[in-house]
Amino acid sequence: DGGITQSPKYLFRKEGQNVTLSCEQNLNHDAMYWYRQDPGQGLRLIYYSQIVNDFQKGDIAEGYSVSREKKESFPLTVTSAQKNPTAFYLCASSIGVNSHTQYFGPGTRLTVL
Amino acid sequence: SQQGEEDPQALSIQEGENATMNCSYKTSINNLQWYRQNSGRGLVHLILIRSNEREKHSGRLRVTLDTSKKSSSLLITASRAADTASYFCATDTTDSWGKLQFGAGTQVVVTP
Fold first, then answer.
1. Apex CA B110: angle with CA B105 and CA B112, to 5°?
2. What's the pLDDT band for A9 if we cut at 50, 70, 90?
3. A65 and A49 in contact (C-beta within 8 Å)?
4. Three-state DSSP state, B93
5. Long-range contacts of the stretch A19-22 (C-beta < 8 A, 24+)
6. Are B64 and B54 in contact (CB under 8 A)?
7. Which of A52, A67, A79, B38 has fewest C-beta within 10 Å?
8. B88: nearest CB among A42, A44, A105
9. What band does B58 get if pLDDT is binned at 50, 70 and 90?
10. What is the CA radius of gyration of chain B?
């Protein structure tokens, strides 16, 4: 079965702790993306990666970090510097720079207590 | 502010009726896409329309694009309860190639 997986589905953390959200894809896509979604709002781009070992900041990168050591994996770390981390996080991928359609994972709902 | 803005914010219809939602955007685009999101889930791509296209169909979906007005509409014909979801437009703009800008979405509820 091809697709994008995100784990865990729900995540609870105490304020001040870093937390890493997992995103894996077996679609052989070059590009991967992380979005944040707040209630009643659209998606905002946090980071994206067009190719392995390269990534770029999106519109709201502050307080987040990523790595892209493998084509299949694009983990997102929400650091203690992120002022309001409670949100729904979505990972997506696309074939590459010439493809505009993005395929989304099921999301991780992060709640910081 | 967001590149794409959907209208209305929410829509409630009965099964069998048509649902129409609109998206307006601000800057020139390469293409415009519509996605669906069921509650608490990821987004699913529905349809992509390129800047040189005016209308596109996919099953019960019809999308129009008017680049002179910087607007698009999504029509769902003969709606079903399973169409209940939020619908987002996303623009791929000419100055940020490959990065999609999403609107806030239209929440559609289809009652049996």
1. 170
2. very high
3. no
4. strand
5. A19/A77, A19/A78, A19/A85, A19/A110, A20/A75, A20/A76, A20/A77, A20/A78, A21/A75, A21/A76, A21/A77, A21/A78, A21/A89, A21/A91, A21/A108, A21/A110, A22/A73, A22/A75
6. yes
7. B38
8. A42
9. very high
10. 13
Contact (Cβ atoms closer than 8 angstroms) between residue B4 and residue B90: yes
Which chain B residues are Cβ-neighbours of A41 within 8 angstroms? 104-105
User: Closest Cα of chain B to A43: distance in Å?
Assistant: 6
Considering only residues 11 to 30 of chain A, which have any Cβ-Cβ distance to chain B shorter than 8 Å? none
Q: Which two tokens stand for residue A67?
A: 């790595």
Residue B92 binned pLDDT confidence (cut-offs 50, 70, 90) = confident
CB-CB neighbors (< 8 A) of B33 in chain A: 100-101
Q: State how far the Cα of A110 lies from the Cα of A85, in Å rounded to an integer.
A: 7
What pLDDT is stored for residue B17 in this prediction? Answer: 97
Query: What gap in Å lies between CA B29 and CA B106, rounded to an integer?
Result: 21
Nearest by CB to A101, from B41, B45, B88: name it.
Answer: B45
CB-based contacts of B59: which residues, under 8 Å, 6+ apart? none
Statement: residue B86 has pLDDT above 90: yes
CB A23 within 8 A of CB A73: yes
Q: Residue A18: name the closest of A100, A112, A105 by CA.
A: A112
Shortest distance, CA B90 to any CA of chain A (angstroms): 9
